[in-house]
Amino acid sequence: MLNIAICEDNREIISFYKLIVNKFILEHPGSQIRLSLATRDPYEMGSYIEQSDGEMSFVYILDIEFAGSSKKGIELAQMASRHGDNVKIIFISTHEEMSIVSFRYRVSPLDFISKEDGMDRVKKILSQDLENVLLETDSSKKEKTFMYSVGSRLVKVKFDDINFFESSTNPHKVVMHTKYGTAEFRSSLKTLAESSGDLFRVYRSLLINVSNVLSIDGKYVTFKDQTKFELNSRLLSRIKAWLSS
């Protein structure tokens, strides 16, 4: 999830920034982006930064000076940079001279956009900055993996390669079916089901990776690698209901 937060004390300008961000979100329906905060109060922004999840991605769009407040945009940027690793700062201000001061605060903004260039140019540059951040965020997404132990050896597989798990004939073990074959290891379907929201327990001895289901047709569940699994109509209905919920 890419969170975008804005702090600008001018009512008309912050409304303009919100329009730009909301348009950007609408233009990228397949991406997880949200305008998580738009405020004219730098202290509210400070509280938001302190309470934010340091593991998530953030873009902070900040002015440098706020009317009637001693809190500066550079201070907010410094707080944000310390709070998380996936943070981008975009300053939009008339105070271009502060772009040099930002280095003294050990803040490295993604961009410094001058309001003096006009709002059309602000819109163009801000939109491009957001596009660049999104591309970087998408390319750095960690691939989801599944890990299991065989004796003292730890094995890692791509979660997208897994089709389903079933109970083994050997006590306290399960069999994992992937697009490349099978593997047996010590675990339980209950434990596996609790480890991921993409694993659906169809019945007592079967757990399906629903994110890998391509289609449900007739008596069969077909996975993305074209592997087919036969089930009765009642169980197929359960999977369909889960997928549509």
TrEMBL record:
Task: Spell out the InterPro entries in the cross-references.
Answer: CheY-like_superfamily (IPR011006), LytR-like (IPR046947), LytTR_DNA-bd_dom (IPR007492), Sig_transdc_resp-reg_receiver (IPR001789)
Matching entries from Pfam families are given as: LytTR
Question: Could you tell me the superkingdom of the organism this chain comes from?
Answer: Bacteria
Which residues are recorded as modified (4-aspartylphosphate)?
Answer: 63
Give residue ranges for domain HTH LytTR-type. Answer: 146-219
Ion transport keyword on record: no
Q: Which residues form the signal peptide?
A: none
- Regions annotated as coiled coil: none
State whether keyword Phosphoprotein applies.
yes
Domain named Response regulatory: residues: 3-130
Database matches in SMART domains:
LytTR
MF GO annotations: DNA binding; phosphorelay response regulator activity
Q: Which residues cross the membrane?
A: none
Provide the alphabetized UniProt keywords.
Activator, Cytoplasm, Phosphoprotein, Two-component regulatory system
Q: What does this protein do?
A: Required for high-level post-exponential phase expression of a series of secreted proteins.
Name this polypeptide is given: Response regulator
**Organism listed in the record:** Lactiplantibacillus xiangfangensis
From the broadest rank down, the organism's phylogenetic lineage runs: Bacteria, Bacillati, Bacillota, Bacilli, Lactobacillales
